[in-house]
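Example record for the data management plan.
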Amino acid sequence: MGPRTTPADKEKLVQMDSIFREIQTIYDAGTPIFAKENIRQVGEELRRFQDGKHNDGGNITMRGVNGVDYEVFVHPPRRGPPRENEVPGGLTWIIHYHALEYLTSFKLSDIAVFDLQSAYLPMKIGAIIRTRNENVKDTPLRPAPPEEDLTTYWAIEREWKTSEHYAQLQEVLANVEIPIPLTKVIAVASGRPVVQTQVNKRRVLHHSLISDLHSTLVRRGLFLPAASSTKPYIQDPAYTQRDRDILRSAEFTILDDPQAWLELDDSSVLVCINADFPVADIVADICRPALIIWDKKRGPHPYWTVTPRVKAMIENEYIETKFPDHECFGNLVVLVRKTS
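Corresponding structural encoding:
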């Protein structure tokens, strides 16, 4: 038998249902769920937490999809007892992005934790505690020195550039016709290049794709002259200092969340490989990048269905081209914006 529903629960369910219907009506009217101004506001609040001013939590004001400002309390992470051989690491404050279906549906088990005050918020701030495992059997290798990290990174990239997959990708990029001059390449959620103390091939290739895409499009003369010397932008809240050191040496400009969304515009190229948040929903609300490379399956979360807004954007405004198959890249597609 499931949990018993009390009269108070029933009353709350009525309130929840009313909120879900209202949010759906707001969405159906064409109102952006992720507006740039709201993203900017959340970013400013996030900075305060990242600066160490609210490590114990704190009140912040955030705007809901209904246009109303709500004061909500951001809770610090719960520090449970560490597992065997596990040592707590640093605290990282991040933004959680919530898709439309998350905002308009629920399970009965959600009733107790459902917060009416934050129900309209598509973005929330939370914290994660990093941990490291001190079991020598699990992590036998010590971190490599920085110069060795970069040597490994370049070796993986060089090997990829001699592969059949790379040749196939170059053929795809050679035939891409982009309707407007480009100004930047922006990649989000490409993953940490260092996993369990070692440079990871899959994650290196994610970043190699970004830099090679940038250099190929520049070589083809598809960038505005003033923008052709820019470095590709990358953003992933999971990056550690070691990751950042490698990636800066590999000629990337690293952005802090949510700066990538504020930089993204119609003259941008967007790359997103297997993100764990609703990228397509954000993009459909804020701009129409000239070129998109992203994971067709939209991510693993059960709430991440393809919304009508995303579906209309892809079908009506983009031409889809298959991305060459490769075990390290998943089910990627190339979307090129149609000419007006």
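Summary line stored alongside the record: Residues 36 and 286 are 6 Å apart (CA to CA).
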